[in-house]
């Protein structure tokens, strides 16, 4: 298969993309949309069926909203994953999504950086985490070059990793609560403070399949 | 209040302690039991009521079983928090606890090191995380010296932090999957590899209220 999925066109899906584009840098917004497209490609690859094995609407919301915590809209008083989960949940609640489904999206967003745990909290959290990881190049062997090119041409990378690290570090600087030890924010701040060099995440991006 | 809670005496509670003592070092087992007692003290302090606001049996199971992933019984092929959640869940299932309650314990154990997330996944995960953190000295202002002394005399610390770090690093050495970046295991391994000094966690223990 060499095509890529289309974005959903429901009014709420359109509003979701508009909201994210209004809050986030273009680079982070594009990353969020690509994460959804990668997650959909992975679902097909693994034989996971929309409506049966996972809720495709919720996967769209979780992926597209997952980095809202890096945006100026965030409270800036808790780790960015949870800030993003709260903003995403508030947006969906305001738009009439019911509590149970909102909580599933909350969980998927909050856990998107929790390696080894998100993958065990149901298909939505699994696919969200994997979609995000795929946009860092992890596990992308099944994605064809044609698919990758289409995806990156529709939603350019724009130095995504450095842009995202910048935003996470900026969020961390807003409060001492935001970058606890043993979290991605805590380690990115430590690495940037330490030597002024590129973080491990940025170094890895240089040699990843998507080569930034 | 200057007394400390008693451990539950149901047959399954007794078996749980026996199981943990059979699997873990004395130091880690004592830490696990103290985590439960601290969690119970916190529940009282915060006015959280057993049976109404949280399930006291599940809190006991989650706290006492939370570090099983550091024991030789662990599969050694995933992060220790998840290894522990799997072992704890299997133990409870084998002892007739129903799936829904087992999943709540799984979640509380898997998230016990996830700062800022566990606190938002319901009272069980909240109290489990806080109970563990209290045994590192965090947020212990409400605990009286008499309570702390009773707790530590019943369940001595035995250099808990170094002992636990040793076990997490030992578990991490069993597979490259066990210590991903941005997890406690990943950072402890990095710190020990880097300079052979005490890890940040061990350094903090020296000046914590429980002074190791």
Layout of secondary structure:
The structure is a homodimer of 212-residue chains.
Chain A (H helix, E strand, L loop, with lengths): L10 H13 L2 H20 L10 H10 L14 H15 L4 H12 L12 H12 L10 H10 L5 H13 L11 H12 L4 H8 L5
Helix pairs in contact in A: 1-3, 2-3, 2-6, 3-5, 3-6, 4-5, 5-6, 8-9
Brief descriptors of the model:
homodimer; 212 residues
Structural class of chain A: mainly alpha
Report the C-alpha radius of gyration of chain A, rounded: 16 Å
Helix and strand string of chain A, N-terminal first?
HHHHHHHHHH
Instruction: Based on Cα principal axes, name the global outline of chain A.
Output: globular
The proportion of strand residues of chain A reads under 5%
The chain pair forming the largest interface, with residue counts per chain, is: A-B, 24 and 24 residues
Please outline the major beta sheet of chain A. none
* Quaternary form: homodimer
Taking all residues together, what is the mean pLDDT of chain A? 96
Could you characterize what this model shows?
By secondary structure, chain A is mostly helical. Helix content of chain A is 59%, strand content 0%. The first copy, chain A, has ten helices and no strands. Chain A has helices spanning 11-23, 26-45, 56-65, 80-94, 99-110, 123-134, 145-154, 160-172, 184-195, 200-207. The two termini of chain A are 25 Å apart. Chain A binds chain B through residues 78-79, 81-82, 85, 107, 110-111, 113-117, 120-121, 177, 180-184, 186-187, 200, and chain B through 78-79, 81-82, 85, 107, 110-111, 113-117, 120-121, 177, 180-184, 186-187, 200.
